[in-house]
Amino acid sequence: MYSLSIESLQYSYDGQAVIDDLDLHVKENEIVCLLGSSGCGKTTTLKAIAGLLKPQSGTIHIGSKCVNGTDTFIPPQNRNVGMMFQDYALFPHLTVFQNVAFGLSKLSRADKQKRVDEMLELVHLSEFGNRYPHELSGGQQQRVAIARALAYKPNLLLLDEPFSNIDAQVRFQLISDIRSIIKDQKVSAIFVSHSKDEAFAFSDRLAIMHQGKIAQLGCPTELFQTPKNKVVAEFLGQGIYLDAKPSGNDSFQTKFGLVNSLTKQPLPSEHGKIFVRPSNIELFNADSGEIKVNQERFVGTEYLYAVELQGQQLEIAKPADNPLDLSKPISLKIKPHAVNFFS
Ligand SMILES: Nc1ncnc2c1ncn2[C@@H]1O[C@H](COP(=O)(O)OP(=O)(O)OP(=O)(O)O)[C@@H](O)[C@H]1O
């Protein structure tokens, strides 16, 4: 069974479709990231799941329970969904203990104490129960927010850009900590982000959103190696398109030589384009070569060389201990990789 199933969801603001026939299925104990550019409908999707807005059509099931359908609309407080947002929204006038206890009014005093103690221990803040939010660091506040969201044992956790206010130096440690906490608690979660680095670190599968739809759902390697379309390929990182003609079922003839693919697939015989990321291109000094470097940049462990290939700009790295000699001819080769071909 899925912990969340969304089918044919439609939502418009003032007649303008923002979610357009969206389908999404999240497995039990799975963390899925909704990843996409600004305005593609990520937050609106979360709000529809939480019941903070009412979609015009489509169905949403949380576990086996229908929370949104033709004749059904379960209000947010009855969906058993935990939420955690960018600004943490801790109550400033309540202590850490009181913040975590906030949603537990139905429990007896002793059960409440036990549950909050468990939660604070889980997020390593047992010593901080009497502090107020302003007496905590950003990362500690975020851990209180996760403790509060998990305290009443939600079936599903919704996280909207929860790490964007956290200092970059501690962000990835916090992401790893919160991921472990969610996995320990065996809760499914939907996480909204702009950042693919955060998404890779935090989630099991990524749903790339584009114009109100899921363009593709899969684990990071699957999306990288077999993007269904150009939107997905480009969203996951910089690259360029090169004219290419398939040759056999695992190589492509390009202006820069034969490119071997590590994945075999039936290919059409006509020309198309391959999407090549800078990491798949190697620059080197040769006896002859036509590659012109427009700019060289030293960034510590490597040099970045700005080049133009078939009218497209990109930066290609070389290790700092093996730089190019710009006074000599430069050539390139495209390394064997899982080639993305588009007809
Ligand atoms: N209350 C509203 N009234 C009208 N339009 C809205 C409203 N809220 C959002 N929108 C529009 O709906 C679209 C989707 O917004 P949404 O907040 O879901 O995007 P998002 O993918 O979460 O963006 P971001 O990454 O910038 O937070 C945007 O074009 C936005 O301008």
Automatic annotation (TrEMBL):
**MF (Gene Ontology):** ABC-type ferric iron transporter activity; ATP binding; ATP hydrolysis activity
Biological processes, Gene Ontology terms: quaternary ammonium group transport
| A GO cellular component entry from the record | membrane
The keyword Nucleotide-binding appears for this protein: yes
Show the Pfam families listed in the entry. ABC_tran (PF00005)
ABC transporter domain span = 4-236
Q: Which InterPro entries match?
A: AAA+_ATPase, ABC_SmlMolc_Importer, ABC_transporter-like_ATP-bd, ABC_transporter-like_CS, ABC_transpr_FbpC, Mo/tungstate-bd_C_term_dom, P-loop_NTPase
| UniProt entry keywords in alphabetical sequence | ATP-binding, Cell membrane, Ion transport, Iron, Iron transport, Membrane, Nucleotide-binding, Transport
> What Gene3D superfamilies does the database record attribute to this sequence?
P-loop containing nucleotide triphosphate hydrolases
Read off the PANTHER family from this record: SPERMIDINE/PUTRESCINE IMPORT ATP-BINDING PROTEIN POTA, SPERMIDINE_PUTRESCINE IMPORT ATP-BINDING PROTEIN POTA
What is this protein's name? ABC transporter domain-containing protein
